[in-house]
Amino acid sequence: MALIITAECIACWACEPICPNAAIRVKNEVFRIDKKSCTRCEGYGDLPQCVEICPVEGAIIDDEGTAMNPPGSLTGIPPREPLPA
């Protein structure tokens, strides 16, 4: 049920202070979400607070590997189709 911060994270520090459960930890500029503390901000709105504020598409995923801010969700620019081989 916990969210995961991926290597796409740019270490902007936006998420860490707004987590209502203090589930986001930082060590050597690498951000992690403590699985035991993360509740996906249940009771704090429609989306987890870290997802609401994260400026990077694909930097936070759910436990099934689905990006919470998928490509195009923040910029409005749809992802490119792969070029034909």
Q: Given the structure, what is the number of helices?
A: 1
Mean pLDDT: 93
Order of helices and strands: EEEHE
- Could you give the order of strands across the largest sheet? 1-4
Query: What would you report as the Rg, rounded to the nearest angstrom?
Result: 14 Å
Helix content: under 10%
Q: What portion of the residues fall into strands of 2 or more residues? A: 5-15%
Describe the sheet with the most strands.
2 strands, antiparallel
Terminal CA distance reads 39 Å
Structural class based on helices, strands and sheet pairing: mainly beta
Flag low-confidence runs.
none
E-strand count = 4
Global outline: globular
Describe the structure.
- There is one protein chain.
- With 85 residues, this protein is mainly beta.
- 6% of the residues lie in helices and 14% in strands.
- It has one helix spanning 49-53, and strands spanning 4-5, 24-27, 30-33, 60-61.
- The strands form two sheets. A two-stranded antiparallel ribbon has the order 1-4.
- Strand 2 and strand 3 form a beta hairpin.
- The radius of gyration is 14 Å and the shape is globular.
- The model has no long low-confidence stretch (mean pLDDT 93).
Key features of this structure:
85 residues; mainly beta; two-stranded antiparallel ribbon; 1 helix; 4 strands
Provide a short characterization of the protein structure:
With 85 residues, the protein is mostly beta strands. It has one helix and four strands.
